[in-house]
Amino acid sequence: MSLAPYLKKRLTDLLEEKRIVVWYDGEDAFGEIARTFKAPNSTVILAQESRLRSRRKADDVLSQLNDANQTPQAKNANLLIYCPWPRGRTEEQRREDPFESFALIGTAYGDKEAEMFQSLARQALPGREREIDRLFAEARPTLSLIEGLGKSIRYPLLQEALGSDSLIEVTTQVLCGKEPAKELESVTGAGNELLRLLQAGLGFVPPPRLTAVESILEHLGRYVLFSEFALDLQGALPDQVTDVARAPEEYRQTIYSLCDRMRMSDDARDCYIALASRVEKALRLAELASRLPYLGVRDTFPFEEKAYLKRLESLAKAGNLAEARQVVSQRQQSVWRYIPERALIWKLAERCVDFLIAAEAWKSQAPKIPNTVRDLVQAYTATDGFWKTDRQQRLVEQGAAACAEDDEVGGLIAICRQRYAEVVGSAQSVFLKSVEREGWPPEGILRQTQVFNRYVAPELEERAKVVYFLVDSMRYEMGRDLGGTLESFGSLTVS
């Protein structure tokens, strides 16, 4: 299968499943496919000419979906929005994207490594990985150039049985499809072609005298996942698993691409999670690998995610916050965060690291601040002031309250609480001594009793419309958060 049909099939499947797909093409590689793309009862919107007009058109289509007053074709339609730019990485960037809300309603495509041009080319053209990597390393190949690499179908029986002869796609289907054995057995000879494809592309050979398709596929799943774990491991394997079959070094990138495809795709992710849990249990990896000093950076098995949570605590105790932040960043797209309970725990861990970084930043700034009451107040409310430490502490406690089972990060939370007590205690001590020395309130700082006369009364005198909310006992950092939620409505300042 060439790249264009492969990509069209993936998008068509996503539309059937999610109904709304926002296709981000940050490499601007697939405009030709987008212009000619067609799927049953689907509207395609190309956003490259005018984002505003495209957004209006998308709103019109969305408003008709599931509307009982519309025609069956309109209310049951699907929507594909092609955006020739990358999806934003930060919350601020995504808020500015006119189609981010559509991606949240349905799904986004093209924002993950497995959905980028080079990775898709590797998936669609098995056996050509080295040539593809060379083209991308030496130049910026076009779609037509990549398409020219794979004109012939080398596994026609697999193509008939599974609709593809791509190594990545076929392996994903047989490991994560609904009834792969039945599909293979429906076409005589497809099973033999599968074994030839797997040996050529992954180095996989089933155990001798094993003929049942289900058993072969179970061994294949173990082979693929254990290969990724072993190839990614920083150090030697435990002695008890050194004889477990795994792929040689030459198949590293293909194994990585295959596992990424299964983890990062909605159609295969749940099956991957179940498969990884079975393989981990069958090989007793959680027990055997518990004494390994370092694991890899890839997210193959559940125990690795838990090991990295423990590592976060060790890094926090040692004050190695840069590496702790790196661990959190590496696991933001973790497959295990699609499990709601694990997502809560990792969100809490991320907040703990953010707090410790904010506390350390304040600690480095504090000695440079003059010990006058006014200077201390201004330092607290500055853009990078101590309010950020208070905010992160609040988010940690909110996360701990929302996380029913936080034993895995209990030590990390304890470190944050101890650090907060130290930092806030030091700040309070300096502040109270300054108040004792100078008195309260400081000169030149806006008081609450001055707000009405300074800001509201002049507006009333001009007969302008003004709304004034007086909210008592709101922490300053909570006011800053409130201001952040109102920025999209117009000009805003926080004092």
Please give a handful of descriptors for the protein shown:
495 residues; 4 domains; 4 strands; 60% helix
Stretches where pLDDT falls below 50 for ≥5 residues? Answer: none
Structural class: mainly alpha
For the CA atoms, what is the radius of gyration? 28 Å
Order of SSEs:
HEHEHHEHHEHHHHHHHHHHHHHHHHHHH
Write down the overall geometry: globular
Strand content: under 5%
Present the secondary structure layout.
Layout: H1 3-18, E1 20-24, H2 31-36, E2 42-46, H3 51-64, H4 72-75, E3 78-83, H5 91-96, H6 100-105, E4 107-109, H7 117-124, H8 129-138, H9 143-147, H10 156-162, H11 167-176, H12 180-185, H13 190-202, H14 213-232, H15 252-264, H16 269-283, H17 285-288, H18 302-318, H19 321-330, H20 340-365, H21 373-381, H22 387-402, H23 410-438, H24 448-461, H25 476-486
Parallel strand pairs: 1-3, 1-4, 2-3
Helix pairs in contact: 7-8, 10-13, 11-15, 14-15, 18-19, 19-20, 20-22, 20-23, 22-23
Concise summary:
With 495 residues, the protein is mostly helical. The protein folds into four domains: 3-147, no CATH class; 156-290, no CATH class; 302-438, no CATH class; 448-489, no CATH class. Helices cover 60% and strands 4% of the residues.
